[in-house]
Amino acid sequence: MCKVIKIFFITFLLFNSFLSPVDAEVKSSVIIPEFQSIIREIKQRNQVPVLLPTWIPVTLFTKPQPPSEQPEPLNGGKIETFFPELSEINSNKYVISFYKFAECIGRTGSSGCQFGYVSGEKLTSDLPQVPEDYSFYVEFYKEPQKPGKSPILSPESPSKVRLIGDIEGWFIPYVCGANCTSSQVIWDLNGYRYTVAIEQASKQALIKMANSALNQ
C-alpha cells in the first residue's frame, strides 16, 4: 500500500513539473465566492454557457479614496477584493461588471468605480468578427502619436493571442484620455463569444485571466 502511495505521489510531482507557472496557477475548478449568486442567476435567465475566471488581477490598481471611508488607503493602496454585478443580461448575453467598492454597484459607467468586466454572448449573423469590429483600433495604433496631444496608448499593440486548448483570441489594448478604457482578450468558442477586460491590464495578465476561465 505504501509503495502504491509513493508511486502516485512521484507521478503527481512529475506531472505538475511540466506545467508552466501560469498553467499551475490557473489549474482550478473553484468558482470565486463573489460569483456564486451571479452564476445562479445567469443560468436561470439564459442559455449561454458561463465561463468565469478564477484569477483576476485586482491588485493592479491603486485604490482611490472612497467617500466617507478611511482617510488613508489600506494595505499600501492595493485592492484585495472586488464587487461584481450582473450589469446586463438577456437570452443571448451576460455581462458581469467589476467594481472597486460596494457602493459602486448600480453605477455602471461611473468614473473611478468600474475596473473591468467579463461577458459571454451567442454568436449571431449580425455580430461582426472581432478583427472587423476593432479594425479602428489597429489603425489607431499605427498612426504617429503627437506627444502631449494624443491619448496615452498601451505599450502593447492589438494582436492575436493563443489561449489554452489552442484557442485563438484577440488582445485589444487600453487607451487613456480623460479616463482609461479596459484592455480586452476576446475569443469565440462553440458558437459563443467571450471577453475578459481589465482597466490598463497587460496582454500577459489578460491571457492568464482568460485561461483561468477556460480551465473550468
Q: How would you describe this structure in keywords?
A:
single chain, 216 residues, two-stranded antiparallel ribbon, 6 helices
Which range does the strand content fall in?
25-35%
**End-to-end span in angstroms?**
33 Å
Q: Element order, helices and strands?
A: HHHEEEHHEEEEEEH
Largest β sheet strand count, sense and barrel closure: 7 strands, antiparallel
| Principal-axis shape | globular
| Mean pLDDT value | 74
Number of helices: 6
**What is the count of distinct domains?**
1
Taking pLDDT < 50 over at least 5 consecutive residues as the criterion, the unreliable ranges are 1-29, 62-79
Reconstruct the topology from this structure.
Layout: H1 2-17, H2 21-26, H3 36-45, E1 83-90, E2 93-99, E3 114-122, H4 130-133, H5 135-142, E4 152-153, E5 159-163, E6 167-172, E7 175-176, E8 182-189, E9 192-199, H6 203-214
Antiparallel strand pairs: 1-2, 2-3, 3-9, 4-7, 5-6, 6-8, 8-9
What does this structure look like?
By secondary structure, the protein is of the alpha+beta class. The protein has one domain. It has 6 helices and 9 strands, in the order αααβββααββββββα. It has helices spanning 2-17, 21-26, 36-45, 130-133, 135-142, 203-214; strands at 83-90, 93-99, 114-122, 152-153, 159-163, 167-172, 175-176, 182-189, 192-199. The strands form 2 sheets. The protein has a 7-stranded antiparallel β-sheet, covered by helices on one side. Strands 4-7 form a two-stranded antiparallel ribbon. Strand 1 and strand 2 (93-99) form a beta hairpin.
